[in-house]
Amino acid sequence: MELAKQAEKYAKDLFLKHKNELLLFHNIGYIKKTASYVNQICDLEKIDKTEREIVLVASWLFSLGFLFDYIDYKKHSLRVAHEFLKAQNVVADKTESILMTIETVLYNKQHETICGEILFDASEFYVSTEDFLLWVKYHRQERNYFLKPKLTKRSFWQTVQTYLNEHEFCTKSGKQLLGHGKEKNASKIKFVLTQELKQQLPTDNRMIIEDLREEIRELNQKMEKRLSSTRGFDTLYRITARNQVALSGIADNKSNILITLNTLIVSAVITFVLVNYNELEFLMIPSFITIGFSMLSISLAIFAARPQIRPGIFSMDDFHNKKVNLIFYGNFYKMDYDDYETAIREMLADQDLLLSNLTSDQYTLGKILGRKFKLINFSFTVFLVGFVISSLAFAITLFFFNS
What we know:
403 residues, mainly alpha, CATH 1.10.3210.10, elongated
């Protein structure tokens, strides 16, 4: 059982390192209780030493994901478990058995082994304890800290009652050990719900109706403000995006005009002057001046039209700190789909984060447009100056040659 002791130490150290006082339910106390009930059920089921070690190690590791991500805790629990087993050099077969046991419990899959059934029953120990109401109260408070929308007391107790009615233990030993306590707690929940309903019964129907009307009036006002605000945001971002796309098209067209025009000038000079070098040797200097300015103007226009290459990947820390824009393709084209989908879901669930990304997208497009037009402006200036100087150079050269 050395591996189980190492898993216990690893779990305790991890909770000390990533201490989170908001985990009122899924904390080290919950994991200790689960491991304790795993031992009790293993004794009753009389399973062998190998299977006991597998389920005991799994009990210390299966709930560690809550320390890293409350929403995606399942993936992180499996990741942490795999890292621990790899560090301990556990053989492949045992590693697979432990991870499969954890996965079947986390994802509520059909348990293919006795290990999964024992871990599931042990992890549900709180449904039979004397302080069951305290456990579920902590669970509600913890859930409301991390998830939205928050659950009201009544809806939460109704959810708990439904869960207890549908809950079944997987092993005979689990039912024997925990079944009686579960039935007592189901009666407690029924009583709690009855008391909640009594407290909500109207004492004066007329007063209740007036209160409801006032609440509905306030709610309608809030919804009107929210809708008008949403329409305003939608209009602003839509018009800004459309204008920026149009301006980007204009910038690209101007770049194409400069590139085409300067290319024709260079081709004409090469064709009519440089090819006839022996006859038009006196025009070499103005020709090279023309070609030089044209090439510089072409280079600037190409730099303006050339797309910028972004890293294509971002960290979740940058995303949560609003340092990255999920809407611009250059920030995510190298990412895994699962990571990008997770970030998008979080963004859609948080309006402030969504508005921050939309604003960042507009700002990024504006910066790119600013760079484009700056280079195009410089390119036009070079073209104009070059055209004037080249024309004067040709005129002066022809004048002196004819003289």
